[in-house]
Structure prediction request, 59 residues.
Amino acid sequence: MQNHSLWIRCPVCHRKTRTKVYEDTILLNFPLFCPKCGHGTLINVVKLKMVVLSPEPDA
Ligand SMILES: [Zn+2]
Prediction:
């Protein structure tokens, strides 16, 4: 059985970050950092679904 996986996309610039999640990965209050635009964002990811909690504009 193969797990689906997904590269998390930055909610700011919508490019791929270096954070990868699987179907059974759970991220809560995860400080996502985007290496492309340098923004940090707090996110939840459950079952490959991302919810943006709050942007961190001072990143
Ligand atoms: Zn970005």
